[in-house]
## 1
Amino acid sequence: MSRAGRQWLSYSLAVLAILLLYKYMDPHAPKPQVPTANPPTNTESLQPPGLAGEDLQIEGALSPEPKPAPAPDSPTPHEPQNELQDGSHESIWRSLPMRFAVFPNALPPTDSSLGLRSIQADSSRFPKSTGWFSEDEATKTRKRKQAAVKAAFQRCWASYKSLAWRSDELAPVSGVPRNALGGWSLALVDNLDTLWIMGMFSEFEEALNAVAQINFEDSPSELVNTHEINIRILGGLLGAFDLSEDPRLLDKAIEVADMLYVAFDTPNRMPIIHWDLHEAARREEQIAEETASLTEITSFSLSLLGYPKSQMTLNILTPSRLWPAKFNARTERLDGDVYSVGGDFDSIYRTLPKAFVLLGGRYPMYREMYERASRIISGRMLFRPINIENLDILFAGSVRVAPFPGRNPRTHVETQVHHGSCFAGGMFALGGALFDIPAHHQIADKLLDGCLWASRISPRGIMPEIMDLIACESQGDCPWNEEHWRREIHHKSVPSADPDMDIDAIIRAYHLAPGVVAVPDKRYTLRPEIVESIFTLYRVTGRQDLLDSGWKMFEHIRAATEVTNGNAAVEDVINPEGEPGHLDSMGSVWMAQTLKYFYLLFSPPDTLSLDEYVFNSAGHPLRRPEETLRGDS
């Protein structure tokens, strides 16, 4: 990577932070007033060789090297903060001097155009909601389903409040509290916007009072994950502020953003993901990690958009196409030979169109990056699986690149699919609507239909974490071939190829549905990706069948995961006999994303319209700039 490329990449990761809290925060503007007791009435309401024939290029303007700044003594998290004139206290993170100054002149080229296309389908594509005194059956059914989702959330919230209040999470089987993210009350922060959306305003106020007392200057954890803090805690605070306009949320968001900024204080300005904030507060030297996930690195691009630090830059990753999973943040080398949209890759690609929207369309590089990446993903990673129903569905696999010196590298599509990659349907739907790419709507439909098929063939109606399928030889007609399926099971099950193996016994023992070769991970961890895509496609297209698909999925998940103290991850979703086996885990994602998307699916479509809000990777709604929509549809 060239010197200019390294600097572009590092600047890109330390600006999208000059640019969203500007939307939220003007130091000279009066703070917004706490809303009076009139809540809203509608509460329902980098380019890999071999993938595109080009060498990996990161381009950008050369900017000055960072200069170490003096590191004077500074307070630790346990020492008193600086008192301000208004009697409040300034966070130590804001007053902490940086060792490596970052220059503010590395913003990418901008486009003055603000007119963005409408994303959400026209209101005529959705059923009209009738009044309370003359409700039709469809409205009654929708409200009944919405109420069922809310009841599931209330049940989990009540358990968390009684057994794990102010902890990060509740272990639902043992009923004990757990701290998984710094001990900063993750479940409280992560669910503030969900409480507001569901009309639980007294619970919202109670949670907000607790959140206001969180001390982000110290943590019982030795290391904290800045990626998770960014998308869940900072994202949660911003999402709740955009809904309620309560200034306490903005104050806390700025405090967290100030803290995250310190994690960028490394020689090359690459953020530290697994970060010792105690060492940082003592002004010990920091250096970026040798092994990092690009998803974690790039996740800063939404919540930190517009963070008003004059020396902060975060342009995000450059006009390239695809990125491998692993990244050496210390040397700025892209390591790895596997390219995918699942697992460690999801936030990278779905962030691109969302960043374009939140920046008001002023930064065309995000559109260019999305369009380039999506062309390669659709042409090289997506595959149609062999299935007994001969359905025209798609899944997102992985591409492994094998370099050959002096020759073009060879690529191989791996047909192992991850539940987490099911976000891709929603991503293509969003990008297709935003950038007027009709082919992406078809891709989105087929990707979502693939994940719904994988759920349907599972005995419990839930797609497992990981499954191996067989790719059709072409995108055309793909008739069922049982012998091919059995050969692949034999090959997958026994690498030594025992010719006397009883394939039928393997199929029975491992509960393999026709077309499924193996299920390496049979769990369901309360993931939101499928319902997120259902919600997104429903809002973008108005497909009415998705309401039924979403309801069936909710019923299956509720039946398999419900335990005394909430809902628990499931050990095995493909064994139809006996209990599924509950794991003692109810990650905050369950209430903050999965149930939120189910609830919004059965809400009137003008509730958090996609033309008004962008959902970050953790499901938090960030309000779009008012001027970004001109009604072009």
Note: The chain has a mean pLDDT of 80.
## 2
Amino acid sequence: MTTEDPAVTLLRDYLRIKSVHPNPDYDSCVTLLKGQAETIGLDYQVTELVKGKPILIMSWMGYEPHLPTILLNSHMDVVPVSEECWKYGPFEAVKEPNGDIFARGIQDMKSVGIQYIEAVRGLKEQGKRLKRTIHICFVPDEELGGIDGMGKYVSSPDFKKLNVGMALDEGLGTLDEEIPVYFTERNPFVVKFHCSGNPGHGSLFIENTAAAKVQYMINKMLKFRQEQKKLFDEDPKKALGNVTTVNMTFMSGGLQMNVVPNELCIGFDIRVSPTHNIVEFQKMLENWMEE
């Protein structure tokens, strides 16, 4: 029987923790990770700026601690799952004979957090000591936008004390053995369109409805999406960071089947490329709404 690498065992233990929304188990994550900090010999601090949403910082002190530090950031939470669509249970962390692990969070982004820990462990075991202090940060709430996690932490005195000079965070998942490093990132631009119109009975031809306006905005957004996808598909040199992605992720409204609603809401997850002017992009959306 082949002995599993301890780093892989740690990763699978982390993946088995159900830190999934809407009720992520952050306490179990922090307990597991604190144990690693103690084993490696790292200082650590747990900060809870919002009740039930702890932030864990591990610190490997450099020999010139006054210098700006390096922050290695990851988040503990994962998005909800549709278990019936999975080959294995999403929190079983099943490993197939070829080494592939199936679990929610394996790419986004528990594996990255464990990589940080194992990199520091390896360097310390080699007797290395770095000039700059390294902080490993595990935050909550990222999948909800990070407002109660990193959003509050960066404004806190504790964060300012870290004296961060450079930070690394997640990029995109990879399908092969190459792990790309990104020096820039697209700007998240989450938007909801609330479309109002005339209500009425479902048996009539109601004019100027919310649905007609929703259809107009969907057509505009998906046309723009297709244009960006064409740019990406036709140029093999383009990476995702060179184009703006658009995906409709939300729709709500309606009272009952025979009533034309006076309001419908649609939402889009947009990642605006650095090559797009964000002010001009927002103006484009506003023009569509005025139309």
Note: The CA atoms of residues 8 and 233 lie 35 Å apart.
